[in-house]
Amino acid sequence: MDDKTKQEIRAILKEAKRVVFLGGAGVSTASGIPDFRSPQGLYNIKSKYGVPYEVMLSHDYLYENTKTFYDFYWSTMVYPNAKPNKAHIALANYEKDHNLVIVTQNIDGLHQLAGSKKVLEAHGSTYRYYCTRCGKKFSLDELQHEGVPHCPDCGGLIRPDVTMYGEPLDEDTILTAVQVVSMADVLIIGGTSMNVYPVAALPDYMKSGTKIIINLEPTAYDRHCDYVIHEDLGTALEELFA
Fold first, then answer.
1. Active site residue 123
2. Does pTM surpass 0.90?
3. Fewer CB near the last or first residue (10 Å), C or N of the chain?
4. Domains in the chain, please, with CATH?
């Protein structure tokens, strides 16, 4: 990022009253959590289960192959020891003195661990669970992190509060995300290929303002943005928020 671009964006952020950060899996790769669609991503790795990982993250697979699903889920999708990286920390620090809302496609809870308060989790969280029979809620800490969890009260299957393929996103969360994006002065898109809908459609609701995209690789959405930065997300955010 050249100095001219950096100074222009810093000036815009200084005047902004409502900033939204829309983030994807690339936000957490520096924390040791793999993304999905990059060449090294989960969907491009041969599955040891004989079924593509993308299929295993579906509603049908969860209920039809519950034991295998949880073998995969506990070993591959849950990272209780992961720590926030530079991107998470930069956003949390910026929020302390600015009106910032984070809309994340990630389910790892790292924004909250970094200290961010205004976080909309479009795809749910691996930190939340519920019984499919009685609805009782559980935290990650209450579960064994191995095998198939069942409700101690009714014996029902406990599942992650995560949106699987074949399931709709939480309506309230998406409607709130639409509202905050529509009112934003600045929208920063980071660490996402912008290929996953309906979240990828959220920037279209922005009425006016500045769109900035920060991603290592080019995306199809680059042409719609005022500033395009192909750099490390954490480093770029630290420089822009300085």
1. yes
2. yes
3. C
4. 1-33+83-123+167-242 (3.40.50.1220)
